[in-house]
Amino acid sequence: MELSGKTALVTGANGGLGGFVARAFLEAGAAVYGASPKIRGEDFPHPNFVAVAAALTDRASAEKLVDVPPRIDIAVHLVGAFAGGAKIDEAPEGELDRMLDANLRSAFFLAQAVLPRLRASGDGRFLAIGSRSAEGSAANAAAYGLSKAALVSLVRSIAAENRGSVTANAVLPGTMDTPANRAAMPEADPSKWVDPRQVAALLVYLASPRASHVTGAAIPIYGAE
């Protein structure tokens, strides 16, 4: 129960990874405020879970979201999306904006709203999910890759600006073993993919006192691919 007494705000809490993360933080003793446009309290039947039906579309919506919990010690940003399948010069109109909205701007708006709350806690944590594509070539998914690379840059800026009061780290998973990925890639071998429970466990560690000196990191968790 190393997060006992802590309050975590988890965005995208009912997504493919979000369920694992919310449960891991609850099991570690944290009070969890799970945010998503269509989340319900019964999604996580636990006395320390509070569902917050909200979307991150701009700074105003982020400010409204962070006003819900009485305090925030940990912000875990899981909101994101993938688009790909075409070369840069063949990418559909609007794909870059969609990737930047989902993978970068949502995190930027959340950071603007939540950082004062995290600093007030005295030992805040800002955690975000990037992607293996942020640190390598993203052939046929350039907009996705650059949006995740920009997210890593944002996290490192947060770490640099808040040393001593807030740590900020990104986790960069490869393909995760989620129902959505299995449906999208039925011919692939999911045994080589990343177990989302390990991603959740890593996030709990980064939120814990054991990781108080870890900040500005982009931590790979690539699986066996």
Describe what this molecule looks like in 3D.
This protein has a single domain, classed as NAD(P)-binding Rossmann-like Domain (Rossmann fold), CATH 3.40.50.720. The protein contains 6 helices and 7 strands. The protein has helices spanning 18-27, 59-66, 95-121, 142-161, 179-184, 196-207, and strands spanning 7-11, 31-36, 49-53, 74-77, 124-129, 166-173, 218-221. A 7-stranded parallel beta sheet has the order 3-2-1-4-5-6-7, sandwiched between helices. The chain starts with 6 loop residues before the first strand and ends with a strand. The relative contact order is 0.15.
| Range of helix content | 25-40%
The SSE string, one letter per element, is EHEEHEHEHEHHE
CATH architecture: 3-Layer(aba) Sandwich
Distance between the termini: 33 Å
Oligomer: single chain
CATH class: Alpha Beta
Number of strands: 7
Structural class: alpha/beta
Name the shape in a single word. Answer: globular
Question: If strands are numbered along the chain, what order do they take across the biggest sheet?
Answer: 3-2-1-4-5-6-7
Largest sheet, strands/sense/barrel: 7 strands, parallel
Radius of gyration: 17 Å
Low-confidence stretches: none
Please, what is the CATH homologous superfamily? NAD(P)-binding Rossmann-like Domain
